[in-house]
Amino acid sequence: MDLEFIGIDPETGSGNCPAVWVDRDRAEFVLQGWKADDETLTRTRRDSPLPDREAVVRLPYRMADTLRKALDEAAAGA
């Protein structure tokens, strides 16, 4: 697997999450974020079931530029 690192939360002080990668081989985004709390999971399940193999993570708005960069990278490679 060859992940291309796009960026990390600009306000992370210790180099931890959240972060974004692009997997060109699989044409997927890889997101590292905070695990969703029970309230968030309950709410999101109203719109979309959550199988055991999937997860809901939270990313802050301040990562919008990082996500845009990932989208641009994906579009360029498509």
Report on the architecture of this protein.
The chain has one domain (3-77). The strands form two sheets. Strands 1-2-3 form a three-stranded antiparallel sheet, covered by helices on one side. Strands 4-5 form a two-stranded antiparallel sheet. The two termini are 18 Å apart. By secondary structure, it is an alpha+beta fold. The chain has two helices and five strands, in the order ββββαβα. 8% of the residues are buried. The model has no long low-confidence stretch (mean pLDDT 90). The chain has helices at 38-47, 64-77, and strands at residues 3-8, 19-23, 28-32, 34-35, 57-58.
> In total, how many domains does the architecture comprise?
1
**Strands of the biggest beta sheet: in what spatial order?**
1-2-3
What is the structural class? alpha+beta
Helix coverage percent: 25-40%
DSSP E strands, number: 5
